[in-house]
Task: structure prediction
Amino acid sequence: MEDVQRKLTIKDEYCRMNRWNFLTLLSLVSCIVSIVLFITAKQAPTYAKSCRDLTNDESGIYLIRPDPFLPPIEVYCDMSSVDGGWTLVAAVHENDILSRCGHGDLWSSQQGEMASKQKGDGNWLNERIFGKIDDITHGDYKNIAYFNMPASNVMIWHVPNNLRFHNIKDEAFFMYYTIDNVLDKYGKTLKNLFSQHAPLKDPGYNRFHTMLASPIKFIKGNMTEMMENIPSAVLADVQPGYLQFRAFDNDGGSYALCPGFKIYQGNVPQVCIGGANSLHMDRCGDFAGWYGKWLENGNKTTPVDGLARQLRDVKSSILIFTK
Result:
């Protein structure tokens, strides 16, 4: 009996010892892991939430992290215009204006010439991303800052297509920005503005709406030059010096953005971009109804009908920044 009791005592002491050793080991491992995580956190790079938070004053491509739960992204930052800090969030490019909502028309529709599918892809209102930062004058582009980076104002550049990246700003023929803190009033991001305050409706929607048009200030170009780009048949319908968010054609079809103008009625497709919800396929596309006929003479182009935009406009990209 004594022998059994002695063995039980030895076993109990052995278990207590090993339990203590196990807990000690577990505690030691936990401590080491905590130290490693602490050191890693200290050494991990920190990223600005937007270009506005950068301390560098040189324009170019930077890594920012608008969303702390997502990896950082590469964006183009304009650090010199109007105190700098502008983040490029989107680019609208018409790769084939005759395709009518064909391949690459991501800001209108890629669904083709089918009236039953003429609803648009909805990219002005959603959180889809597409394109590459180094291809912004070759194709459509949208990054996560479009929908999750709070901002106050919008800046627009009109630039020729197919430029090398370092030439974009120098080659821009119009540059301007809103001066009324429009995003502060309408959702802080362009996604919220369009989804909550200026939704793109189906054809037939009541187009007599409250106009959402922000006054702009020119960095490059002016109102006179802007009016010279507008087709003659449209001149009476527009007022330069604004950036209008959403406009409706005479059939109630909606267009997302009217860069440089506000338009009261009439030929909306010749002024605005991002048209997919029209009853007419010839108005469907990133640059909607900008197509017309031109006489080309060297670098000069002359529209030969009253509804054509300048060839320079058709072969350009619209870059969208926010700050």
